[in-house]
Structure formats: structure tokens, C-alpha cells
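Session log. Operator J.P. requested a structure for one protein chain; no other inputs attached. Running the standard single-chain path with C-alpha cell output.
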Amino acid sequence: MTHFLVSDDNENGYRLEDILTTVRGDVVKRCEKIVDDHREEAHHVLENNIRILSLLSEAIKLAEDSTHVLDKSFGPSAAAEGGEPRIGRA
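Structure written below.
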């Protein structure tokens, strides 16, 4: 069973790209709170967060690409309605 992602056991789950986009937004909000803090530790954390944002953006693009490939090849997912997975096994 998945905790956050759509699966046969979690029909109300989310798409990976949606979760990652939400996390990215949360990191941006954190960055806004520390951007004017000129202490060394704040700069270090801000630089880490900027790198994390870049990695999240890359992961979002990959997840969106996977969704596009599945949609193009097999049509929209029916998993939320109890349908079979488009690839793999249930």
C-alpha cells in the first residue's frame, strides 16, 4: 500500500508530480522567510534549499514525462475508479 500516491489500495492518492509541486511550493515559502537573514547559517540553509528546489523541479519534469508517456500509450488512468493499472501488476 502507498501512503500518498494513487494505487489499488489508495484510490484517493495523489500523482507524484502533484506532491512534488506542493513540496516545492513549501520550500519556496521557507526561503522567503530566511532570504533577508544575513547570518552564515541562514545563507547555508538558503543555498541548500535552492539546490533542493532545482532537484525538485527536475523530479517534477520526470514525473510529468512518465505521466505523458502513460497517457499517450494507454489513455487516462482508471486506477481511481478501481480499474487495472496501465503498467505493472495490481
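Operator note: The CA atoms of residues 83 and 90 lie 9 Å apart.
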